Amino acid sequence: MVGCVECGTRRNPCRCRVFGPTLGCVAFCVAAVVEWPIGAFVYIFKHIKGKRIMGHPARVVYPKVSNCMPI
């Protein structure tokens, strides 16, 4: 089985999470495929905006999707 595991959390009785981090990783990859080329193009003209676009999957998408599932 391929997936992400997060152990040591206090969000559930077994103290391990598999489903949330795995979905977060998948959502991160999908968002990165779309946003990184756009961010690289924008970076040519506006450096700060391009960095913000390229960092969006790691800063926003992964944590939101991963934290919505306590399992």
UniProtKB/TrEMBL annotation:
TM segment ranges: 18-45
PANTHER family per the UniProt record, alphabetical: COLD-REGULATED PROTEIN
Organism name: Papaver nudicaule
Keywords noted in UniProt: Membrane, Transmembrane, Transmembrane helix
UniProt-recorded name of the protein: Cold-regulated protein
